[in-house]
Amino acid sequence: xxxxxxxxxxxxSHTCPLALAEVVSALCLTATRIIGAFRRKNLEMPLxxxxxxxxxxxxxxxxxxxxxxxxxxxxxxxICFHVGSTLDHxxxxxxxxxKRGLCFACDDKAEDCTFCTTxxxxxxxxxxxxxxxxxxxxxxxxxxxxEGDPAARSPDEAIFxxxxxxxxxxxxxxHELFKLNVPLIPRIITEHAHSITGIxxxxxxxxxxxxxxxxxxxxxxxxxxxxxxxVRIYQGVTLGAKSFPLDKDGKPIxxxxxxxxxxxEAVIYSGATILGRITIGRGSSxxxxxxxxxSVPPGxxxxxxxxxxxxxxxxxxx
Length: 318
Description:
The protein has helices spanning 3-38, 50-64, 79-105, 114-129, 131-148, 155-161, 163-179, 185-197; strands at 200-201, 206-207, 212-213, 220-221, 226-227, 232-233, 238-240, 261-262, 267-268, 273-275, 279-280, 285-286, 291-292, 301-302. The chain is α/β, with parallel strands linked by helices. The strands form 3 sheets. A 5-stranded parallel beta sheet has the order 1-4-7-10-13. Strands 3-6-9-12-14 form a 5-stranded parallel beta sheet. Helix 3 runs antiparallel to helix 4 (114-129), helix 5 crosses helix 6 (155-161) and helix 5 (131-148) packs antiparallel against helix 7.
């Protein structure tokens, strides 16, 4: 190495630790402010683990659809052992993650918060009791996917392969936890599905049985949406809010019902944007790329102005 490069290397070796120390100090100072501004008061309890929550979801998938996910070697003589063992693991892990979520928002600074411990146990038990209901309603979603898509060869294919079924499964699990007022974890569950499928369903939305999302990419369903039975939507559909009312300080007011109501047996085709607390009447068809901010009565056919003579029949053109 020539003298010039040797001097440069020596100079670099002397300056890097100093620069790194400054970066560490700056980040730690900001981190302290972030923790003080955004994190909960009880810093002794760790935040929920995304990895652990995702593991719980995958385990739940293996008991809701046994033989499809997790252990494929399941038969009549061993399935009950698999389900029982898996549920015992899920209950313990879920209880711990729920407690972490509760402590995130808890005002009690104690390391062992009895209130959060008890509430986490009660929430985990209540959720476990809902699993038969979740399984039943998911089977109606699977059947709707099979019946609603001519390309589906069997309901098994919908369970194994369809992003809509994956997203709806995560949503239905998250929704039950959301109703139990569990913080953070429902959003982790639905956002995990969002990252995989491109389907964004808020866990607070209310969705009845036999729900089918075909293709799915780009679908957005807002927090206060209410969706009836046998509703079918396609890729790129947005069920969103038209505006966000502000309080006297200019901040969005929380808890207002601001998303659409979609009644039974409605069909919403690709790219449609439906905004605000409006109602899509029973059995209506909303055509592709329609922008809708007003309610429509039952049986309506809403299309773009240039396509009024076109009709949509059982997925035509999709």
